[in-house]
Amino acid sequence: MEISALTRSVVKHNHAIIAPDGYINSNVPGWTGCTVNVIINEQMGARLAQTLITLREGGELKGQTQAAQIFFYVVEGQLQATVDGQEKTLTKGVYVYVPVEKTYLFQHPSEGTQVLTFHKVYEPLPGYETPGVLFGARDLAKAPIYMNDEALRIQELLPNELGFDMAVNIFTYDMGGHLPMVETHIMEHGLLYLEGQAIYVLDQQWYPVKKGDSIWMAPYCQQWATTMGKEPSVYIYYKNVNRFPTVL
Ligand code: UGY
Ligand code: MN
Questions:
Q1: Where do the Cupin type-2 domain residues begin and end (predicted)?
Q2: Can you point out the beta strands (E) in 65-219?
Q3: At residue 167, does pLDDT exceed 90?
Q4: Residue 64: which H helix or E strand, with range?
């Protein structure tokens, strides 16, 4: 018998591991026929939000972005998107970036469709245009080698332009792949493991993680990771970028 008093999830002041076993659903106005798990948000001390939505047949996500932009990524299944008048069928691995003050409607999902969202309050940059709606897809062919290590590949899903203040990347670690150093940086991360297993080291603590797990890393939370097991590990992650780093 499994012991329900155990979990791999942890919530600390500068990082969290959220495994699916502890999910409790939230009701979100305009998001119907679905379960919504709010995995990261400002209640934790984060400056982004991350949710995972699981839709039933007939489910719908309808709304309008306000001060925050939203990045939607299809983890499983498929559905129909209409964003600011642009229509597209989104299948597994396809995403849409919805800038501020735009309407969105996602409908006709296949049963069990899962959608990941990253939300960030947009910080305009004088002299640069607010980004427009952007569709794209996961593609390993668009993932260059990271830091001269053939075992590490990163695909940037949003353009590396100053108008954007957030990045969303897919990081693939082949067997034996690990971060080349312990990263210590001001940028914050939210992430979801899409494939495989790994060991993540956060603030000097070691955590086994796998497909379906999410992680929050606050600014300056020290981080290192290595893949584990017999298949590559892959995660999609958020990072705040391109803005003046201090109010001083
Ligand atoms: O972009 C990054 O900071 C990335 N290398 N960090 C991470 O995967 N934990
Ligand atoms: Mn990092």
A1: 53-111
A2: 68-76, 78-83, 86-91, 94-98, 103-107, 113-121, 134-137, 145-146, 149-156, 166-173, 189-195, 197-202, 205-210, 214-217
A3: yes
A4: strand 49-64
Question: Which pTM was predicted?
Answer: 0.98
Give the count of alpha carbons within 13 A of 129, CB side only: 3
**Cα–Cα distance between 72 and 66 in angstroms, integer?**
15
Residue among 67, 48, 53, 93 at smallest CA distance from 189: 48
Distance CA 211, CA 193 (A): 5
Whole-number Å distance, alpha carbon 21 to ligand 2 midpoint, is 26
Smallest CA separation from ligand 1 atom 2, residue: 239
**Atom 8 in ligand 1: which residue has the minimum CA distance?**
171
185 alpha carbon – ligand 1 mean position (Å):
9
With tokens 């803005």, the residue in question is: 243
Nearest ligand 1 atom to alpha carbon 225: 9
Q: Torsion angle, CA of 147/150/154/159, rounded to 10 degrees? A: 70
The residue whose CA has the least distance to atom 9 of ligand 1 is: 223
Per-residue pLDDT of 184-204, as tens digits, reads: 999 999 999 999 999 999 999
Residue list, ligand 1 pocket, CB within 6 Å: 171, 183, 187, 189, 223, 237, 239
Q: Which residues contact 43 (CB under 8 A, 6 or more apart)?
A: none
Read off the pLDDT of residues 86-112 as tens digits, 9 standing for 90 and up. Answer: 999 999 999 999 999 999 999 999 999
Measured from the CA of 146, which atom of ligand 1 is nearest?
A: 5
CA dist 140 and 155 (Å) reads 7
